[in-house]
Specification:
alpha+beta, 7-stranded mixed β-sheet, globular
Length: 553
């Protein structure tokens, strides 16, 4: 298959990228371990693939300012304390800030993207590389939430990543792996958590190598889908920039970008457009082509944000800056890669020195996208249009056929016990019970205190430290807390949420986080008149959740 072409398999469109050219460090010795295939009989819990939660977002999918494109995440899911998606009587939670592991809180005024990644043995990506991609999206006004899940403790030298549309397909290796490992251990306690999570999360697997005949490729991703496989490790130890560029490139495919712009355009498959400053171009996915011609700078971790057009046949007008001031272009000239800086106006002399003549004059005629080193092999004079890729991302993979893939998870034992004895010890207003509640560290009251207080206890319970605060079937609540005291965090079973607030309102720390919980859950919700009347522990005023949640409506 030629590079730059779309591969259609069983109706699924996936984009392949060759990286045979790039210079990876071969010194790193990767394992040759080859684990046996996963047994589909052991997959365990699976999500409901036919379920689309809140299709079309009846409650709204607010568009950010100056944008005609929403992020496909319903407003009710994007609360001030994290992502919360209810289905099947439970609420999936990926909380943020002080309430959970996500360092970025979702927003209805910015677009949000969620990604979970796993890795095969010895192939964990650089966390700095992931952070750099998050920063690139943030600069563009988009919240990228990346959840590092787990080392699969498995290794396969080659993986077949091809997925099929419409139905789960356990026969492809990528899907087998994803069916076992997508989702954290807490997500895997209930199939409805998995159903909810897949409404919002892309999935990335970092592995060793793609299966023949694609062993020279660094990755594969669905176009406007939710699946990514990255195989950079087969080339040695990737640098931070190589990892960041490849991850952002493949995520761009998930977001509807081809190598030459948004996939909906007829010329989107044209690669190496010299006026497209984007990691989607094979010439700019990583800094390696720059390095090959002695450039230690000029590469950018970015998608194109500027639309421009050049005509090779008419000549590349050197006085035309194309709106790319401050960028460094990389292009071909008779098959040899060259670079040309685009200065900030007005110094030095304004223009693009396409032919490296050290003067800005005329319109040299050259085949600027012919760069065989990265597989751009077409020799002809053409017109190339670069597009504003940031402004044309497709966030809504739920609307695509690839959403019906075989993404699922394995079966994990429920390691957390639900302690309910204390809840039955007394009744509201029972002074003996209130005294017991004050004096006991809540170890027997609707939840397990230890996992909220001690990372060691979390780890012992099979929960990754800092990954969650409570299991998904519980809600995180502070008791005996004041503005000057951290109090005691406990985990309350969701279906007992309203009952617990009423019984122990004298001890609960009330803030707007409790409004978020009550707004998003289905079973256990408090009556609006009750929760509105509770006193906000921070302000001393009525909590008034009804007014607070209007931001999501």
């Amino acid at each position: 298959m030629g590079k730059g072409q779309l591969l259609g398999i069983s109706g699924a469109s996936l984009f392949l990228l060759s990286l045979a050219f790039f210079f990876f460090n071969p010194a790193y010795a990767h394992p040759s371990q080859e684990d046996p295939p996963l047994n589909p009989a052991n997959e365990g819990l699976q999500p409901n693939y036919s379920t689309i939660v809140n299709p079309g977002c009846a409650d709204g999918d607010t568009l950010p300012p100056n944008s005609s494109v929403g992020d496909g995440l319903c407003n009710s899911w994007e609360t001030a304390t994290g992502l919360r998606i209810s289905t099947g009587g439970v609420t999936y939670k990926y909380l943020c800030g002080a309430y959970g592991p996500d360092t970025i809180c979702p927003s209805t005024s910015r677009r949000d993207i969620y990604v979970e990644y796993d890795w095969l043995i010895d192939h964990a990506p650089s966390t700095t590389a992931i952070s750099n991609v998050v920063s690139a999206f943030n600069t563009a006004g988009i919240n990228l939430h990346v959840q590092a899940d787990q080392n699969t403790n498995k290794h396969w030298m080659q993986v077949q990543p091809v997925t099929m549309e419409g139905v789960p397909n356990p026969n492809t290796e990528f899907n087998q792996i994803k069916r076992f490992f997508f989702g954290t251990s807490a997500d895997k306690l209930n199939s409805n958590y998995l159903t909810a999570k897949r409404q919002a999360f892309h999935y990335t697997l970092f592995g060793h190598q793609l299966e023949n005949p694609n062993t020279s490729l660094s990755g594969m991703a669905e176009i406007s889908g939710n699946d990514i496989f990255i195989a950079m490790a087969s080339f040695g130890t990737p640098t931070i920039d190589q990892t960041a560029g490849t991850f952002m490139h493949e995520l761009g495919h998930n977001l509807g970008l081809a190598h030459g712009g948004p996939e909906t355009l007829s010329e989107a498959t044209i690669d190496c457009k010299p006026n497209s400053v984007s990691v989607m171009s094979s010439s700019r996915m990583t800094p390696d082509l720059f390095a090959s011609i002695g450039m230690s700078s000029g590469w950018e971790l970015n998608y194109s944000g500027i639309a421009s057009t050049i005509n090779e046949d008419a000549g590349l007008t050197e006085s035309n800056l194309l709106g790319l001031q401050g960028n460094t272009l990389i292009h071909g000239n008779n098959g040899n890669p060259m670079w040309a800086s685009v200065p900030f106006s007005p110094n030095p002399p304004v223009g693009i020195d396409w032919d490296d003549s050290n003067t800005i004059a005329g319109a040299p005629r050259m085949d600027a996208n012919y760069i065989p080193a990265v597989g751009c092999n077409t020799q002809s004079f053409n017109t190339y249009t670069a597009h504003n890729e940031w402004g044309n991302l497709n966030f809504k993979f739920k609307d695509e056929a690839d959403f019906g893939d075989g993404v699922a998870v394995g079966k994990f034992k429920d390691t957390l016990a639900n302690y309910q004895k204390g809840f039955e010890k007394g009744k509201p207003g029972d002074s003996k019970y209130n005294a017991y509640f004050r004096e006991t560290p809540f170890k027997t009251i609707l939840g397990n205190l230890e996992i909220t207080k001690s990372p060691r206890a979390q780890e012992k319970a099979g929960i990754i430290p800092d990954d969650i605060i409570c299991e998904h079937s519980h809600e995180f609540i502070y008791v005996n807390r004041t503005e000057n005291s951290d109090g005691t965090p406990i985990c309350i079973k969701t279906e007992h949420f309203a009952d617990f607030l009423e019984r122990f309102k004298d001890f609960v720390f009330f803030d707007q986080y409790l409004c978020d919980i009550n707004y998003s859950i289905e079973k256990g919700k408090a009556e609006a008149t009750d929760i509105d009347s509770y006193t906000n522990s921070k302000t001393g005023q009525p909590l008034n959740c009804s007014e607070y949640v209007k931001q999501y409506e």
